[in-house]
Amino acid sequence: MTRITTDTGQIGAGGGDDLNPQVADGGKRHSGSLGRREFLLTAAGGLGLAALAGVTEELVGPSGNSQLASMSVPEQVATHQWAMVIDLRYCNGCKLCTAGCQAAHYLHQDQTWIRVFTMRNAAGDTYHMPRPCMMCEDPPCVPVCPVSANFRTDEGLVLVDQSRCIGTRICMNSCPYEARYFNWTSPLAVARQPFPQEPEWPVPQVEGTVGKCIFCAAMLPSGQLPECVTRCPMGVLYLGDLEADVAVNGIGNTVKLSEFIADNDGVKFKESYGTHPRVFYIPGHGQDLEADADAT
Amino acid sequence: MTDHTYHSASSVSEPRSTPGALVTLTESSAMPPYMQEAMRPVLETPRWWWPSVAVLSAIVIAGIGAWAVQVTDGLGVSGYSDKAFWAVYEADLVAFIGVSYGGAVVSAILRLTNATWRAPLTRIAEATALVTLPVGMLFIIPHLGSPWRIWELVWPPYWNLSSPILWDFFAVSTYLLATAVFFYLPLIPDAALARRWLGEHETSIRARVCRQLYTLIGGRWRGTPEQSKLLNGAIGLVAIMIIPMAVSVHSVLSFAFASSSRPGYLETIFPVYFVVAALYSGVALVVIALAACRRLWKLDAFIEPRHFVRLGFVMLAFGAAYLYLTFTEYLVDGYSGTVGNAAWVHQILVGRYWIPFWFYFVAAGVFPIAIMAIRATRTVAGVVTAAALVVVAMWVKRLVIVIPPATEPIVRSPLGSAGLLGGNWGTYHFTWEPVTITLAATAAIPLLLLIVFRFVPILPVAEMEELAMPEEGLR
Prior knowledge:
The structure holds two protein chains of two kinds.
Chain A: H1 36-60, H2 64-71, E1 82-87, H3 96-105, E2 115-120, E3 126-131, H4 141-144, E4 150-152, E5 158-160, H5 170-174, E6 180-182, E7 210-212, H6 227-231, E8 237-241, E9 246-249, E10 254-256, H7 257-263, E11 279-282
Parallel strand pairs in A: 1-11
Antiparallel strand pairs in A: 1-8, 2-3, 4-5, 6-7, 8-9, 9-10
Chain B: H1 6-11, H2 35-43, H3 49-73, H4 88-98, H5 101-112, H6 122-138, H7 140-143, H8 164-184, H9 187-201, H10 205-218, H11 225-258, H12 270-296, H13 305-336, H14 339-349, H15 354-373, H16 380-407, H17 432-452, H18 461-474
């Protein structure tokens, strides 16, 4: 699996036309918004450009730009673009997803890589909301790491290299979803594992490093669903692939991802934070997942 | 206490160098009369010296032991959790690097503003900066979850230049280098003077060792006009450079917090807020260091009550600015009424963090202003008391800055209590490990100062010689 930290560009464009405009951007950046990376590049570029403008023109001439463009890496389109759909209409808060995840990854009780929040909607009723890693397209956790221990794969998974993490925890500060967990003590003893210890399967966890939901990345190539999806008896959790435009849950339902989201008014959590999550929520209880203001 | 001040003493020193030039060191030139006092800490070992060093070293060793326990058992033993992922070590890092700003203020800002009264204070202020900055930087080690991988921070292939923590690392390292240079440059003429003075007065083994050191530092210093011009130019340049560097260090430290979407950290006021806090606590620490050195080595003739009062006013200015910044931050965030921001303001003012906040407000907000406003309390004792309270209360204030936003639930699950205080707030509880490590760092500062002043003249004799004349004119 090639690890790249840059954006994947046009993924999900095939099914894009069918999608609700609210979620249609798939892999595409909102044209009006300025991501963290673009912001820094624009700022640095502005400074550098002033200094380099004269020199560059002399060296490469007017055709310099096109030459540079042809030298850049051709756009890579991965086979899969992993996503998740969470159908809140059916979640009863049983937390079997959390238990299954913790058992599979040998996590401590307070390390809830998928955590079920009990929330309150505008009418005062409670509802349950599972929260895995949002696998953001512009993940705030990636640029802040001083030693580049966070990265995003070309299949859209945000992972942690625990053999590199030095434990500054600044990624925990920047994640708006509280989706990151630190290994404050030594990890639990681990039985023989089906995969080598790697960012795609960080089992056992490494003391003094940050861990998080990985969508069970090591299991996906062989067609296995993530542990939480398999364990959910209500079929709330779907693993989706934006490339194939399909989503599957643990009780045998397969849906066309774009249609399912569009027909059911799917939303993303805290989309105003500019993170572009790849987890879609199907609300059913009058939820407003836009911001953290849903507390009242 | 000597019965002459250094001003009256310097008035009899003949011949004088030309104004504006550092003291000329030719064989015929007179030794500054206060060389004896400046060299006393180097040559004399008072009865309290070894016991003090022993006690302070024991505390430092206890801190290293506590850190070893933390490394063995995991960062969790220091009271951290996922709901309080940043707490005491991050506050320590900010606070201890912050107190190093006093050296920059006294030596750089007062130099550039031609405040000649600074002269007897500069060596102590610069030495304090030089020892507090590395101690503050060392807090990166207990802060890290995997300190054995700290080498990755100096391994360029792993660098992620978009990370504020890496910016911190660059800024603080540069500032440490500048602080060392700023300590070293004014030491050159002093070392030359001290070397000659030792040759005339002392033949002990200690004196010979120190002479070797002074030869290394100032062996080539002859005090010629060219050398003086060059040195003055260099000091002036570093004095100008060190101010933006100091500003950058705490601005960048604040970016580690502010470059996130977290309510209470995402504050555009943070860089200014952090810099002013550092200047404030830095001046306070210089006041304490001056008072201690004055008492321990009987420097009353040089470090006078007026110095404390003037530094007290500098402290007052920074303290008032900081109080104002605190007020504006809390007012705007609280007034906004957005759940994320109003919640932490509420928790600080009347919620679970009210005790530390109001302690800051009284001890470092109101008290120093009152001390300086009332003529009767505007004394050495008053200023030193205020300074001691400021250093402690500003550390507490850093905890108030770091901990509430880190413990605030940003995915809110308001079962039971809705509204501002809804959700599962995290808690940070002190354990003995971080307390011991923080105390060890505190003890390391006087310990290192005691050691530094065993080797360098405690008074910047050359600078005092140079600056005594205009000051006398004013008097």
